[in-house]
């Protein structure tokens, strides 16, 4: 119906043109003028027709009433008013996951039955304006974090409280501002946290007390369980250097000592109008690096006996790159001497005192760094006796090495055997 109205209006115009132009003439000059006039008028008519074609339907649609719809403002570009809604689920078993509903309550959902159970309503979340929650593996407690304050790329500090699921109450706090890290052990409800570069363990939630695991932490200088700037940014890309054995008994953690690392001062442009001067231990080329050591603590013993996990001997400067539990008694450690063109992997038997390690893999690069950004991560299978890893494979006939999947089997006191699961020349060789 709209369309027919439009065509009708368009056909009205030519008739009006005729009357405006007057009677036809016969001289060539007059003919040319008339032609030009006709073309000009044709263009005008076309523009008018297009304008009508647009305005008429708009008028009919909105009836000329004012448009009361909210407009998209400059601030809306940044305030996420029109952004999509995310959904975040955390698996807690093969069939159940944790999520927060629209009201902000924490629920568990079983994917087989669709049954949901409210673990915690939104009251405490709202009261403290919490930004994160972590449910203990035994589902008895929820760790809530609030007062987020960013530090570097991955690190931040926060305040933390513990909510008792059974009693639906806040039962304890970590009574410090600026907690650097807090997380549950993989089983039960053991909480480990880092404050002022020291590690603490909390197992009793009837009050605020906790037990220190380390005491030598010093802000900006000695770091326990959290990386210094170099390791956070350049090696681990995380805010913590803590690795629990899967039974939740043993805890491996890295300690960094930045005493000898020169200090760099720079302006930090934060929330305030004037920048703040920040000092960080920052090793430029050829200057002293932070030193790293790896330690293991038995959290089942209240005295927290701690042992050092030895680094490969004979290197004045070495980086710790990867720590992973192969089993509850064996720790996989990957170290890289400072030139970063060799990589050493040890398997350490943590049941021995002192802890003893054997080298199971040694890699060399003749063209540059080990790996792409570092060595690959192992994926342990069969109780820790074998692992899958991506490593360079020599393709022969001068083709070079290519990254392939390898199954490695740990044998007592020797290099882990290799079984290449993929081979072949890929796009480009690696070092
Ligand atoms: C909290 O949940 C209730 C429903 O249980 C809801 O009415 C309320 O809006 C929620 N509060 C916030 C701040 O989301
Ligand atoms: C669970 O919910 C999904 C999606 O609504 C539905 O397709 C499925 O049939 C439900 N399963 C059961 C057991 O009710
Ligand atoms: C526990 O810590 C919180 C937060 O710092 C504090 O408000 C509360 O009084 C403390 N409780 C006890 C029993 O000390
Ligand atoms: C850190 O290293 C310095 C020497 O650079 C040493 O004197 C100090 O004892 C070390 N601190 C710790 C806690 O290891
Ligand atoms: C690794 O780099 C260092 C320093 O450049 C060099 O001395 C050494 O020979 C290199 N090792 C290998 C295996 O290329």
Automatic annotation (TrEMBL):
Gene3D superfamilies: Dipeptidylpeptidase IV, N-terminal domain. Residues 136-425 form the Dipeptidylpeptidase IV N-terminal domain. Residues 1-10 have a biased composition (Polar residues). The keyword Membrane applies. Coiled coil: none annotated. InterPro entries: Peptidase_S9B_N, Serine_Prot_S9B/DPPIV. One of its GO terms (biological process) is proteolysis. Keywords: Membrane, Transmembrane, Transmembrane helix. It comes from the Eukaryota. Residues 1-26 are annotated as: Disordered. The chain crosses the membrane at residues 36-62. PANTHER family: DIPEPTIDYL PEPTIDASE FAMILY MEMBER 2 (PTHR11731:SF202), PROTEASE FAMILY S9B,C DIPEPTIDYL-PEPTIDASE IV-RELATED (PTHR11731). This is Dipeptidyl peptidase 4-like isoform X2. It comes from Branchiostoma floridae (Florida lancelet).
């Amino acid at each position: 119906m709209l369309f027919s109205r439009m065509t009708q209006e368009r056909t009205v115009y030519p008739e009006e043109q005729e009357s405006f132009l007057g009677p036809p003439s016969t001289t060539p000059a007059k003919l040319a003028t008339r032609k030009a006039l006709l073309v000009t008028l044709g263009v005008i008519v076309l523009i008018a027709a297009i304008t009508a074609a647009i305005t008429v339907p708009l008028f009919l649609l909105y009836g000329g009433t004012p448009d009361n719809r909210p407009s998209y403002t400059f601030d809306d570009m940044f305030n996420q008013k029109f952004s999509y809604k995310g959904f975040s689920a955390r698996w807690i078993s093969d069939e159940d996951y944790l999520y927060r509903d629209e009201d902000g309550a924490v629920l568990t959902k079983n994917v087989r039955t669709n049954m949901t159970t409210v673990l915690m309503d939104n009251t405490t979340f709202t009261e403290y304006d919490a930004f994160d929650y972590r449910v203990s593996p035994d589902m008895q407690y929820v760790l809530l974090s609030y007062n987020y304050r960013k530090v570097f790329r991955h690190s931040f500090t926060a305040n933390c409280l513990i909510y008792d699921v059974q009693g639906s109450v806040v039962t304890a706090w970590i009574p410090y501002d600026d907690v650097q890290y807090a997380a549950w052990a993989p089983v039960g409800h053991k909480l480990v946290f880092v404050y002022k570069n020291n590690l603490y363990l909390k197992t009793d939630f009837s009050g605020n007390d906790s037990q220190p695991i380390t005491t030598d932490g010093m802000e900006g200088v000695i770091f326990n369980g959290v990386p210094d700037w170099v390791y956070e940014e350049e090696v681990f890309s995380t805010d913590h250097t803590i690795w629990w054995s899967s039974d939740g008994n043993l805890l491996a953690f890295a300690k960094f000592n930045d005493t000898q690392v020169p200090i760099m001062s720079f302006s930090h442009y934060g929330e305030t109008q004037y920048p703040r001067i920040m000092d960080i231990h920052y090793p430029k080329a050829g200057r002293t690096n932070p030193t790293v050591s790896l330690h293991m603590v038995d959290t089942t013993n209240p005295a927290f006996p701690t042992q050092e996990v030895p680094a490969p001997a004979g290197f004045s400067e070495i980086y710790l790159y990867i720590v992973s539990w192969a089993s509850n008694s064996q720790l996989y450690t990957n170290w890289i001497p400072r030139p970063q063109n060799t990589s050493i992997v040890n398997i350490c038997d943590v049941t021995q005192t002192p802890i003893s390690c054997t080298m199971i893999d040694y890699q060399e690069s003749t063209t540059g760094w080990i790996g792409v950004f570092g060595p690959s991560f192992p994926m342990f299978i069969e109780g820790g006796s074998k692992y899958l890893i991506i490593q360079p494979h020599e393709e022969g006939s001068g083709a070079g090495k290519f990254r392939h999947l390898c199954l490695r089997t740990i044998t007592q006191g020797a290099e882990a055997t290799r079984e290449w699961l993929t081979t072949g020349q890929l796009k480009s060789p690696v070092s």
